[in-house]
Amino acid sequence: MEATYQSLVQRILSKWDEKTRSENNTPDTHPRLIIALAGPPGSGKTTIAQRVVSAVNALPGPHPKSIVLPADGFHLPLATLRALPNAAEAIARRGAPWTFDGQGAVDLVRELRASAGRRPVLAPTFDHEVKDPVVGGLTVDADVEVCVVEGIYLLVDEEPWGQIAPLVDDRWLVRVEPEMARDRVAVRHLAAGIEDTMEKALHRAEANDMVNGEFIVTRSRGRKSIRAPNPPVQDSVFKQFRLDGRTVIITGGAGGIGTEIARGLAEAGANLAIWYHTSSKAATILTETLTKDFGVRSKAYQVDVRDYKLVEAAVAEAVADFGRLDVMIANAGVPSKAGGLDDAVEDWDRVRAVDFDGAYYCMRAAGLVFREQGSGVGIITASMSGHAANVPQEQSCYNACKAGTIHLAKSLAVEWAKWGGRINSVSPGYIDTAISGDCPFEMKEEWFSLTPLRRDADPRELKGIYLYLASDASSYTTGADFIIDGGYTAR
Question: What pLDDT does 480 receive?
Fold first, then answer.
């Protein structure tokens, strides 16, 4: 449960930050975060509220002053129940929604909002020894900033309880297995002297508390779930892979892997912005071929990904040319020997500047566009070398940079998710491109001997994974790394 407590602590801090930033704060304005925590009897909501609020108040440094307000003080007094026409039933069913002062709970929540920073509020509590509420048993000081109001009926849709949900800032509903809740409540009844045997306590829990619990679970419709809505999903899997009208930037787009990625996405309908550094002729030929073969728009841009200002400017230019940006693929890379004791430090800087800094610069510049439009996809070409120190080549800088880009993608995936962005990485193994063509025969033979499929890959074998990640087929995929290495890292 500790992870749950800490998650809720962070949720409070996040909600508090949102509230203090969103409200027009003046010396006369005093924000107060009000949370309704509900759940069936025996769900553990009281413990959760107390542990979470204690953790918030124990935080070092500035933090919101927080308090728990149990709603059990709104039980109707025994004298009131005994005066009812159905007194026997009321006492036997004490804890049912009609045995509470629901309107009193609504009025308390309203007063908590109105009194923030102005005046203290007196809230009722419940004396378990005399089994009756105590009027004004708890004082909520004017400077309290977070109020966690916990009670079983706070989120049900039946009046007057249904008025509470719109009044609070956050709504938490605790669920628990019914058998566990029943056993907890029975133990509580026995300890409080409500029943004198466990058999009777279990019977009371089944006949009353579990009935109330079922009502709470099925009628708590007013709660505000943190669940994000599902995006539109095509029934046809082939349509899920279409990219018609979308714009994709590919860095290193004129190279062996970049060219095949571009062709794969163009075949699915994407318009392509091909970034190159020195391969002007290859990039021009590629863009012309993409337009001719697939009828899409395509344009080449010379961009040095080592310079963030150039990257940012090129992203802006592509958005101006195509009218939008949907996918950024950071594919440029330098597989070079660097990082060894006898290698020049300048070689380390050169490789890192392209393989790591360049990937980050591309994701940052595109991410700013994606965040503004509320959606976008990032894909980083990492490498199996980010998972294993492959041999015989010595390339510690390249390996470290690729490992870094894998974790960069994971980290950005968490950050981007809050506004609708996704980002993943692809880790290819040995690919048959011009870069690897110059490698000695003996080196390649060692590669093949260590690869279960006993070969390198045709770059066209990578088109599928990039299309998947760029398209809506991967709408629930983010923060993942896809290793396409013929089994090298599986050994």
Answer: 98
pLDDT tens readout for residues 478-487: 999 999 999 9
45 is catalytic: no
What whole-number distance in Å separates Cα of residue 250 and Cα of residue 352? 19
Which has the closest alpha carbon to 457: 395, 387, 351, 383?
A: 383
R_g (Cα) of the chain, nearest Å: 31
Residue 147's DSSP bridge partners are 34, 67
CB atoms within 10 A of CB 275: 29
Q: What pLDDT sits at residue 223?
A: 46
CATH 3.40.50.300 maps onto the chain at 2-219
Q: Distance between CA atoms of 157 and 166, rounded to whole angstroms?
A: 11
β-strand pairing of 170-173 with 132-140? unpaired
Q: Which of 43, 220, 279, 383 is catalytic?
A: 383
Identify which of 424, 392, 398 has the alpha carbon closest to the alpha carbon of residue 411: 424
| CATH 3.40.50.720 in the chain, residue ranges | 244-490
- Per annotation, catalytic residue among 398, 430, 466, 488: 398
Q: Is 430:485 a contact under the CB 8 Å cutoff?
A: yes
* Active-site choice (43, 220, 361, 402): 402
Average pLDDT estimate for 132-139:
94
The yes-or-no answer on residue 276 being catalytic is: no
Contacts (Cβ under 8 Å, ≥6 apart) of 417: 478
Amino acid code (one letter) for 224: K
Alpha helices in 243-393 (DSSP H): 256-267, 280-294, 308-322, 345-352, 358-373
Domain spanning 2-219: which superfamily?
A: P-loop containing nucleotide triphosphate hydrolases (3.40.50.300)
Q: Is 385 a catalytic residue?
A: no
Q: 385: helix, coil or strand?
A: helix
Contacts of 107 (CB under 8 A, 6+ apart): none
Residue 301, H or E segment: strand 298-302
Cβ(35)–Cβ(168) below 8 Å: yes
CATH number belonging to domain 244-490: 3.40.50.720
